């Protein structure tokens, strides 16, 4: 009887092991699928500007292009734009791959950092007729100054880009219990509910042609998400009660 109990326990243990191996394999294969999808998207996105540049260059090199001044200017403008897009994409991909290696032990004055971002984005806001307001408490967070600057910059840049003329962008920072909360609220287009979580996926865009026309490459929020993650924070996106969108980042300090 003791022997058969022992056997039974062994079988149970083996079954449990097999269930947890299966779970692990499932998680691994999910992770590979995410990686595969990312690589496929990256290759696809990098190919489009390259192919467009190649067509223009081929037509020049084979002498088919009439080469009038207006054509030359147009072609060079187009190749330059595509080149800018590619450089932006490659730079962001590299930034994402290097996130883990950046030091994250600086004490950052949040209001000064927000003021710096707002000053740097003021020319874009003026061009788009959007008003920027900073509303930050006198607080600090510990992290990477350069990465937190990038995080706030990307959120505010989007809040301006996806806004209407005459719109508003408000950046607030305040303490909420043991957390520091940083929020960027805009009065722009808003994001449809079913797509809200997807905006953090690399290369995802609600409106691809609008993003492209605004010089976007679909990696800004993916980088924001990773910066929040390496700082052990969390990020949420919700509709702004007065129209538009609110991105809220929480840091436990
Ligand atoms: P992009 O380079 O296209 O701006 P992002 O990763 O920064 O890429 O953003 C992904 C998509 O999320 C954008 O293309 C846009 O459709 C949407 N989005 C981001 N921020 C906002 C916002 N503040 N209001 C409305 N839509 C936004």
From TrEMBL:
Q: What is its main location?
A: membrane
Regarding the membrane, this protein is recorded as: Multi-pass membrane protein
Query: EC number(s) in its UniProt entry?
Result: 2.7.13.3
Q: What class of enzyme is it?
A: transferase
Protein's cellular compartments: Membrane
Entry superkingdom: Bacteria
Q: Which residues form the HAMP domain?
A: 1-33
Q: Which reaction does it catalyse?
A: ATP + protein L-histidine = ADP + protein N-phospho-L-histidine
User: Histidine kinase domain: from which residue to which, for each copy?
Assistant: 41-253
The answer to keyword Transmembrane applying to this record is yes
Q: Which GO terms describe its cellular component?
A: plasma membrane
Q: Which UniProt keywords apply?
A: Kinase, Membrane, Phosphoprotein, Transferase, Transmembrane, Transmembrane helix, Two-component regulatory system
Any one GO MF annotation of this record: phosphorelay sensor kinase activity
Q: What is this protein called?
A: histidine kinase
Origin organism of this chain?
Wujia chipingensis
């Amino acid at each position: 009887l003791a022997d058969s109990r022992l056997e039974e326990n062994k079988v149970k243990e083996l079954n449990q092991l097999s269930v947890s191996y299966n779970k692990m394999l499932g998680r691994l294969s999910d992770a590979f699928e995410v990686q595969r999808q990312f690589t496929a998207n990256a290759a696809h996105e990098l190919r489009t500007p390259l192919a467009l540049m190649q067509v223009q260059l081929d037509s020049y090199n084979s002498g088919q292009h009439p080469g009038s001044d207006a054509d030359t200017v147009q072609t060079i403008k187009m190749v330059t734009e595509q080149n800018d897009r590619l450089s932006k994409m490659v730079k962001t991909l590299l930034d994402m791959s290097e996130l883990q290696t950046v030091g994250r032990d600086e004490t950052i004055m949040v209001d000064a950092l927000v003021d710096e971002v707002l000053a740097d984005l003021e020319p874009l806001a003026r061009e788009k007729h959007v008003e920027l307001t900073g509303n930050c408490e006198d607080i600090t967070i510990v992290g990477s100054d350069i990465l937190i600057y990038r995080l706030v910059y990307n959120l505010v840049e989007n809040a301006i880009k996806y806004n209407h003329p005459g719109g508003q962008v408000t950046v607030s920072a305040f303490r909420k219990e043991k957390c520091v909360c940083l929020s960027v609220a805009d009065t722009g287009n808003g994001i449809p509910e079913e797509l809200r979580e997807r905006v953090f996926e690399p290369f995802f865009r609600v409106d691809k042609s609008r993003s492209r026309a605004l010089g976007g490459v679909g990696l800004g929020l993916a980088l924001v998400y990773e910066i929040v993650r390496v700082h052990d924070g969390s990020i949420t996106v919700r509709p702004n009660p007065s129209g538009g969108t609110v991105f809220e980042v929480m840091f436990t300090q």
